[in-house]
Prior knowledge:
The complex is a heterodimer. Chain A is an alpha/beta fold. Chain A has helices spanning about 25-35, 55-60, 75-90, 110-120, 135-145, 165-175, 190-195, 205-210, 215-235, and strands at about 5, 10, 15-20, 40-45, 65-70, 95, 125-130, 150, 180, 200-205.
Amino acid sequence: MDQLIIAGEKFESRLLLGTGGVPSLEVLEKAIAGSGTQIVTVALRRVEASTSGPLIEVLERCNVRLLPNTAGCMTAREAVLTAKLAREAFETSWVKLEVIGDEQTLLPDPVELLDAAEQLVADGFTVLPYTNDDPITARRLADVGCAAVMPLGSPIGSGLGIRNPHNIALIRESVTVPVVLDAGIGTASDAALAMELGCDAVLLATAVTRARDPELMSAAMRDAVSAGRLAYRAGRIPRRWHARASTQLAGLPEL
Amino acid sequence: MKINVNGSGADVAEGWSVGDLVRARTGEQRRVAVARNGEVVPRGEWEGTPLAEGDLVEVLTPVAGG
């Protein structure tokens, strides 16, 4: 079996689904089922801002692992406290660690991120950091004990795909923990490319939740991740400048 | 007694615990997390943690995200 293994836990699906932007809980449930995902991200907000009962019921019914995030945090201090609150609320020590540098790009702040990752690992968390597509930062995160690294393809929610495929491949080379392409996926081919570059999994939300038909797109993403993974394992042919006939020349008749 | 809950001023009775506050704020207490003055208050300590004048409290609940 070609399983995804994160922190010793095994998963059949290599697609992680974010729930942000979902138009309704009914759509969310269908998207989770369609995607085949086994890991779903969630967040914490003030009680006034939400009615959480039904959301949790849907997620429990789907029988998926919950991966709380620290979305919106801009300092290590905020992110560490948010992770600890999420551990209380969701009864899991797994955390998708996000520490962003500004509101416009939502790009990670690598200095704060590394600081928070180190503190959380020391506190026993299983840390999955959302990081820049920088191999050095990814390696530093792995070195402090993160259970995976999750480089962005492009900014969150942008749908711009993978802007620096070379760096993603370099990240795969530079760490031994799983690499999860997180953020920027716009459509199925982006997810397939991530897997072809050697990523162990893909995490996406907006591409599904804000698609015209989220359920259909969730199935497209499931197949794209699966196809990309198979292609990666099969090994692509080298690129050539000129054509190379696939039919033999020997025996060609003179006409 | 004046405290701040989720970014707004609130007046609560003397002697109220974190548990009293959570019950007043939400009927659904599963999956709720509480921070008081920048520290997590574990669920098991809600009842034994009295609120104090000027406390900054955050009562949080799951939402879709990420």
